[in-house]
Protein: Spermatogenesis-associated protein 20 isoform X1
Amino acid sequence: MSRDSEIAGPYIPNFPGVSGHQILGPDLGPLKPEPSPVQFRTRPLGSAQRLATQSGPAPSVHRLREAMLVSRAWLGSGLLQPHARLGRAVSRRGSSSRDKDRSASVSSSETMPAGGKGSRTSGATNTAQKVPNRLIDEKSPYLLQHAYNPVDWYPWGQEAFGKARKENKPIFLSVGYSTCHWCHMMEEETFQNEEIGRLLSEDFVSVKVDREEQPDVDKVYMTFVQATSSGGGWPMNVWLTPSLQPFVGGTYFPPEDGLTRVGFRTVLLRIRDQWKQNKSTLLESSQRVTTALLARSEISMGDRQAPPLAATMNSRCFQQLDEGYDEEYGGFAEAPKFPIPVILSFLFSYWLGHRLTQDGSRAQQMALHTLKMMANGGIRDHVGQGFHRYSTDRQWQVPHFEKMLYDQAQLAVSYSQAFQISGDEFYSDIAKGILQYVDRSLSHRSGGFYSAEDSDSAPERGMQPREGAFYMWTVRELQCLLPEPVVGASEPLTVGQLLTKHYGLTEAGNVSLCQDPKGELQGQNVLTVRYSLELTAARFGLDVEAVRGLLTSGLDKLFQVRKQRPKPHLDSKMLTAWNGLMVSGYAVTGAVLGIERLVNRATNGAKFLKRHMFDVATGRLKRTCYAGTGASVEHSTPPRWGFLEDYAFVVRGLLDLYEASQESAWLEWALRLQDTQDRLFWDSRGGGYFCSEAELGPGLPLRVKDDQDGAEPSANSVAAHNLLRLHGFTRHKDWLDKCVCLLTAFSERMRRVPVALPEMVRTLSTHQQGLKQIVICGDAQAKDTKALLQCVHSLYIPNKVLILADGGPSSFLSRQLPFLSTLRRLEDRATAYVCENQACSMPITEPCELRKLLLQ
Structure:
């Protein structure tokens, strides 16, 4: 399926005015990577770029431009010069499909041997006759997918770096993840090629990295690729000096030269020759680029004493989102179109602070309409629930079919918040459906959560994998599977015909030729809601509830049939950060909807993290583990230690779980993890958190701070909000001071382009407005206590902490907040207090009165 995904920075280029072709040459800019949602170009580009550049480029940008010009000098000597016709062809953004770019047919997909955790569903030949490379000893599903390549692959580590230094060879670094479609394509087309394998093994030290295992490596070199090309994405391929400084990078490369692209083999030959002939110039250039990137990545307080005004940042962020909003279909981008929950969260928060204004109403409408259009579109799996990665079109109709855990986690929260705000059960039903999918497909018996499901699978057993095959339907299939007549319809009608009409299926298929250039999906359909229940019912003279029941039973039948199809590859690794997000998803949804089972699932997820991902001796989190046999899990040796996002996302999950369950043990653990996070990642000189520990990532040329909210929120944005909440729970001034310091360090980022950090802008607003402390005094199991707690959970109140005071002066929270012991139950009934600005409300015992106060 075509995805025109040559994409650029989040709403502005990372380096305004700098062309990537200055360093890579016009033939090697990224063409068909798996797009990164923090890199898509949107309509606010013009205004945001003006905002970003009105003060002129930062000095680091000038240094980078200078370095690029030096690089261009040695590139011009023949390393990456295009054929005469190639530069013109590739300069047309998104003009070619992936199939037009191929000059050779796709080779067979290799199946992992029995039990291989990197296997993909296919009918490929057995790998028993092939010799595995050293990746066979790894546990990452992505690395295992490359274990039978004829490439002398190394995992990231000192063995590879030592070899490069000893033999004076450049390093070829290839980064991806196991469910990435274009990573699969490059593995099949390029890395299975014997001649290319020989070149990589003889002239380079080839290193393969799973970006989800090692986000520090991914972030550092993606910074380089984004800075020196017109975009970024995966697979990411970068050539490094033996000292790990990058000098050339790109994304997807076909194996051979084509009409619009220089092939990977040609690139290797040119880099090999240039390394031998002009090494000193190349090394000097790489040093200049690295120095410029270091300056660019610097985030610190500088001379600033305080963060910017929240009102100004809020207004500018909203204006930029409003300018790019799609009035008809919702969302904030043209194709490819991603769900970005941090944007929706910002809009809901903005609405709450501006409820009586036109902009406030507008913000609410933008978020709710986007969520409704996504839920009705093909980006949602109407048969099995859950959401696909992104839409290839503006209408949310034809998705890229990969499913990611972090999307499910955040969207469950978004739809729960939409229900809190609107009271419309449409949104709560979607939230429950998301968690139903995670229960069925992404849950391990240990309590952990798997990472993702692939987009590709075999249409039938023994066939080659094809994108979307598991999810597509024909009209004939529905007619055969659902032949039952619909009683009471105004015309002859079967259940299959009812679903065909409601979900927009056609005999020719509802995937356009521009999205399917090879014609593989003609006659195939993505289920998309085309008509409301009311319109479908009126069309056939039926009762709305009758139609609802028929659609539900029909989808259930399709689900049972679909279970018999070859399934997409499951990435069975369990990442601490994403598990933390999923704990939040279950905890928040369970609390909002009053479903104890969901809160219990969040509790099991937290127990998994403490049992399997926490090292008691050091207080550190591990990054990842892998499904073993039964309910067991396996770790790599030595273990991979956690990154900033692991701590920040788990702390958020634990705080959400405490508010949902009122079990103080989770709050206690959150405080311990925050202390460890501060010790390992805090920048005591400039403020904010580095993404990795100082001792991790041996030799990396940059130690970066995550400064963009995208598919996942920036770990610094989440950490800032965690610090505010922890201060609300404990009144420890250190937490508040760190939060202010962090917000101040990111002031320039927020001031230039607030829309790139909507989650941090939201936290800035919460900080300057102040947090409410909602205290419930009562027995956690008593009905009157539960009624008050549920009253709070049913309302959208993002700027609050919810505290259960159920013990005496010696309880954990009473030790943190001594004033809790002074609050009393009224007439021995559960009693609520709302505290702000060092003062508490009068005691409240009735949920309706508490609701009235909280809505003021």
User: Anything to note?
Assistant: Residues 1-33, 37-116, 121-125 have pLDDT under 50 and may be disordered. The radius of gyration is 27 Å.
